[in-house]
Amino acid sequence: MNKAAVYEECLQEIESVLEGEADQIARMSTVCAVLKRRLPWISWVGFYRSVSPGMLVVGPYQGDIGCLRIPHDRGVCGAAARSGESQIVPDVHAFPGHIACDSLARSEIVVPVRDSLGAVRAVLDLDSHLPAAFDSVDREFLERLVARLVEPAS
Ligand code: SME
């Protein structure tokens, strides 16, 4: 099965499990559980929430223990929160300011999560032990996913 097909199945499963559930923690936790089980190329998936100006705090995640707080001026997560743009990092060692929660991590993608007014409320972070594990297919799917996460499909 190719990557896009795997992601389509993820999206269907997530929407089916979350039908009628509006609680954001329940929604974020389910996204992490489904992605971690279905994407064999990832080692960690989780949300960092923008809880105060300039500061991200870890939310629901699956994988080894993640760092708890990330200021907006640090790391790949901070870059996504600050810029409002998804970040694809093929080699984390080449990214200035990358925060290594897992010494085996080689590549990473971070997608901003916006509220209905367009403000960045959180970021969704996926790590891989493989180099260059993430591409535009991951970005497109994950951006679709987080858009639906904020505005549940009716
Ligand atoms: N690598 C991230 C930090 C979070 S961990 O990957 C779970 C970063 O540089 O922002």
Quick synopsis:
It is built from four helices and six strands; from the N terminus they run H-H-E-E-E-H-E-E-E-H.
Task: Give structural attributes.
alpha+beta, six-stranded antiparallel beta sheet, 6 strands, globular, 154 residues, binds methionine sulfoxide, 4 helices
In words, what does this structure look like?
With about 150 residues, the protein is α+β, with helices and mostly antiparallel strands. It contains 4 helices and 6 strands, in the order H-H-E-E-E-H-E-E-E-H. A 6-stranded antiparallel beta sheet has the order 3-2-1-6-5-4, sandwiched between helices. A hairpin with a 2-residue loop joins strand 1 and strand 2. It is globular, with a radius of gyration of 14 Å. Methionine sulfoxide binds next to helix 3 and strand 6.
